[in-house]
Write a structure and sequence with these properties.
The protein is mainly α. Helix content is about 75%, strand content about 0%. The chain has 16 helices and 2 strands. The longest helix has about 45 residues.
Length: about 475
Amino acid sequence: MEGVPDGGWGWMVVCGMAGMFMVTMGVLPSFGIIFGDFLESLGEGTTSVTSITSVYISVCFLTGLPFNSLSKSFSFRQIGAVGAIIHFLGALLSSFAQNVIHLIVTYGLLQGFGLGLMIPAALSSFNSYFSERRTRAMAISQTMNGAGSFLMPLLVQLLVENYGFRGAQFLMAAITLHSLLGMMLLRPVEGYMKTRKLGLVLVIIERDDQVTQGKPLVKELASAEQEETSALAVELGASCKQSKLTNHKRTSSMRWNDRSCVFFRWIVELFDLSLLKDPVYINITIGVCFTNLSDITFFALEPIYLEQILGFTKAAISIVIAIGAAGDLLARVFLIFVSCGLSYRNRLIFFLGAVGTVVTITVFVFVSNYYVIATLTGILGFCRGCIYISLILVFSETIPAARFPSAIGLYHGITGVVFLSFGPLIGLVRDVVGSYPACFLTLSFLMSVCVLLWAAELVTRILKLKF
């Protein structure tokens, strides 16, 4: 029998994943600080900001769709390394941007594609190394990521002040190249699996599909494993017989001669679309998609709102963003200690984080005091930490380990479609209505979709238990 190491080299994978997220996703909330003045000089509105970030996230997640197929031909480390190089090239070319189209191609398409290869590779490698300690390991990884995200806005602001947006983006490109080091730590788990010796049994399948019994071909079996292995042999023989009968029935009842049927079958197997038959998986995916969209869009627009509408200075804005990152970091540290002493469902933590975010964003639009804004941003950061630590673990609790790469890839594809559809629409709401509060309330409403759908699922389960 084989088992995951639940540690060992897995802790190096944790460090690599944390470093990758730190220098890629950790920079995203600072997009407005780097490119805000440049886009304003071009006369571009909020739609351009949401369009660029939406393309970035959409391409990132859509790239996850073929990941399951790629992972069968290449290792997680190879896929992640290629993604790191592409992401670096996109960041480097963004420093030469002359217009919005340039940023959409370099920042949106190239960086999004590179990140789309790195994220599922890192998460799948992490998932293969941990089982019982998965929650604790994810909390540690996200805490390391949160520590970097706390310092990143301050670093970006310092770079912009001293080198301008082009010089700052050029240096940030060099920083993002460190994700390549993180991807090189994604070594295959096979060499670190815990093994347990089992005796060997050879099973002979006769022409009449009967398992030969009474003539053991190998007699030297470990006494502790003999009964377990014998049961395995009988099960193997029975499954072979059943497999032959099943294949015969399939052949006689359905022939895949029609090209359209063959293509459809190939699509279903390539992306493992059978997961869409599971209503719980669909509910989780939809909720997580809209939560992601609302969170990322809010933190991308907040710096612009604070500067253009509330009149805060860039230095004050960078401090507000850092406070939000500090709240994020606090949540991650808090969950590390909680996971050491308590056993809890990650989906519950995610749900509570979503509820807190909906309430806080709704309050946020009605205040303008600097200290209140900073406090609310810290609360939003804390809720964000709860969400992002639990995000992937929600799928790990629901989906078997063998189907995890497929589940993550399909989730990324659906999220990409959601970002591509709703991201520019949110920016359009701001430009048409002319109100940031209306835009933020729209984000709060979209995140409430997760809250309502998951609450409805919980009520349905309770009613089933009663009746």
